[in-house]
Amino acid sequence: MAVKRIDIEMFLTLYQNMPVFDVRSPGEYNHAHIPGAYSLPLFTDEERKVVGTTYKQQSREAAIKVGLDYFGTKMRKMVEEVEGITKNKKQVIVHCWRGGMRSAGVAWLLDLYGFEVYTLVGGYKVFRRHVLNTFNQSFHFRILGGYTGSGKTYVLSALQKSGEAVIDLEGLANHKGSAFGAIGMPVQPSQEMFENLLAVELNKKRNKTIWLEDESQRLGLVNIPQPMWVIMRHSVVFFLDIPFEERLKHITAEYGKLDKERMVNAIIRIKKRLGGLETKTAINYLLEDDMEKSFEVLLKYYDKQYSKGLHNRENLESFLNKIPCAAVDATKNAQRLMASLQMEKFA
Asked: Which entry of 66, 93, 96, 197 is annotated as an active-site residue?
């Protein structure tokens, strides 16, 4: 068998059903990688540095010899690791940063052992170019709006269960979008990794109408790419219009269990915009375990912020559809949303 070199288009087809092994160093992989790829580092971060320095200060040949010293001791372990992941499957894809010596070396080893091996021409670098190009494509979005505490994430989940195409931006970003958005969530991905995850989701749903939550461009430490953000701001908004008291009940139940110290720190972070008196009031209520009163202060603040962002759109009247909802109920509100959509279609 010979190692087969594939371009990005063929890779995007094969990678849906074939294990991908990223042979870059752990540091490169941890910063960002192709979603779903397994880390199979040829070199540690330190070894990679030594090989790179040898290449620059001596020669290509000297660097290869140093690399072989490292590679030789790992060969058996790497083969066994791939076997453990692939089980009885014998087809694998291997890539490095630019499709150079690292992927060629590991591909040779796996091919020698009996795997059918594909390498990505251009490596991770060409995948990143594909990701950035994705955000310049045209997509058809429907935006799910509503004040804080409307249960929008749960409605998106209900829409997805009913067969609608949905991308959960907050889920990809590991952040719920407010000053409190990181509490109780896993560590956020890097900006690059967030873009990789998002591009893969967009490409899966390319020919469908995609539901997204109405978000600020910034979700904690990551940003929605500008070209996509522009499309979102010009897409139809379906606004769940839920009474303040119902939203307050929902948000109190959801956020009332979170770590109190982190909640206090989050309130302090928005002190400038919230105002000194309101900040003090919200914190005092929180410390007294009167969660509802504390969240009442915060919810009024976030309602103002959301309203400002909503009305900052050009020609909002032509984009905005209000859906009156009696309470925070994901299933019922998703049904109301779809019913309103059908009425609009056939009106």
From this structure: 96
